[in-house]
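Instructor's aside before we start: the two examples that follow are unrelated to each other. I chose them only because their records fit on one page, so don't look for a connection. First example below.
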Amino acid sequence: MEGIVRMEYIYESAQRSYEDFASGRVLYNAQGTTSFPVRLASEIAQRCFQLLEKKGIHEPYTLFDPCCGGAYLLTVVGLLHGQRIHRVIGSDINAEVLGIAGKNLSLLREEGLEQRTEQLKELLALYHKPSHQDALQSAGRLRELLRSSCVGETVCFQADITQSEESLASCEGIHIVMTDLPYGDLVSWGGGSEVPVEDFFNGIHSILDPARSVVAVISDKGQKLKHDRFQRIQHLKVGKRQVAIFEPL
């Protein structure tokens, strides 16, 4: 098990603009949920791809976020790395955010992005705001990303990952779990678990094939990211966050 070290960007080493992915621009904004640094999301995803390749598990992969909120993290990774992903699955205990999650995941398909583009055109015609024009230009650039995408299925549903639920049985064949745990700032743990992080790990372990999966968990530094059914293989700190990548045992 590795000690915690400061994050060094391996795959996203060059600084670049991620404004096309800004929440509320083309991607939908869910009130009361958090967005996520795009550069960090991309770096973590690529580390997971590399670890799976070392295990002999080749793309395209299935990606699952069991605390997806408005599915911002899933959608960003799906847009940036859609050529390596064929299924994107999100779940959350809060049913109220799943409508936005579904809209964001729809942007991973051409018809969903086209619908959003038409909406932005209508907003521009009504209000003539430069922000809507900028969003339309971003939508055009995101459309280019979809040309190489392999994403064929997107799903989101209500579930409490800290509880044993039949709904999680549909999450078969998952290669990558990637999630930003509730911090208690904008978002806190729901449900009745007294040990939510431990129960979270138990929940995801029940749906994974240890030989064919990796788990990336992001949280604030106050939560202990370890579990006896997982081997922690990377442990990184990034500003106020920590990132841990695990292999199930």
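Example two begins here.
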Amino acid sequence: MSQGQKKRVALAKSLTEEASLYLWDEPDNYLDLFNQDQLIKLLAKEQLAMLLVDHDQAFIEVVAKERVNLRPVL
């Protein structure tokens, strides 16, 4: 399976398991634009409680209601 196929399966598996909080690390990695758009629409529709780690600022702007920026402690 390609990396995109593996990512779609992992996301689908995660969503079939009911949870109070979903923890996802870079869910849009390896997804093509069509699947990224589907994921964005799903997240907007379902309003899941989620902690999401991602480097894609455009994706974050669309799906995040709140943002927490972590910095190293000196």
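The CA atoms of residues 52 and 64 lie 8 Å apart.
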